[in-house]
Amino acid sequence: MSKTLILIIGIFITFLSTALGSLCVYFFKGKLHPKVNSSILGFAAGVMIAAGVFGLIIPAIEDSASWGNWSFVPITVGIILGALLLVVMDKLVPHIHKNQMMEEGPKNHLSKAKKLFLAVTIHNIPEGLAVGIAFSSAMQIGTLSAYLSALSLAIGIAIQNFPEGIAIALPLQEETGSKNKAFVLGSLSAIVEPLFAVVGLLVANLLSSIMPWMLAFAAGAMIFVTIEDLIPDAKLSSDSHFGSWGFMLGFIVMMILEITLG
Predict the structure, then answer these.
(1) Rounded to an integer, what is the distance from CA 29 to the centroid of its chain?
(2) Residues 129-134, mean pLDDT to the nearest whole number
(3) 140-199 residue pLDDT tens
């Protein structure tokens, strides 16, 4: 497989996976069982944390080796800045957390369906950035194994995007009363992923001298959104062990991908 093809697959696979998950709205009736929903969200959280650590933070640590005993500085600062990006977005973009039904952002008259859509869209932005920055790092290294490592990050995100597409499409159907609207909105919530993957790729290429900072930045954004959204929602079931085991499984799947491809 050529490096260009790997890059193209990596950029678009996350969006396609969400669209396929949203397509399942035509085959489901009603809401997901709370235990199933907790398992899905826990799985997604496990993938995100593992992707942030194995796919972004560890490469950032390796790239910052020239800092010597101060190599923790770009990693720490990058993670904090990535988290702050999500804090700012939470304040600027009106949205609603689909399981906790807690509204954030400026006051507005948007429908609940649109707020749900915006919540998932915000969640998907750091995933796109992470993929783009990971591929930028791979381009600098130039080896096939580096490209495959970046692809493993994209595949891991895509794996968790499929059940996540289901988890967002069903509430959207309930709010809009239309399977077609739920599918379209669920799919479009992930269109930001390839868009921001390209943004992350271009910006990281321009700022290649601070790649460790960029990798840590993407990791911080992913980890923050996981801690704030996915993990609390995964524990809402009456039996929270389903969310915990989902997390463990997601973490293991992502770890295996990183080991086999990276």
Answers:
(1) 26
(2) 91
(3) 888 898 899 899 989 988 988 888 888 788 888 888 888 999 899 889 989 999 999 999
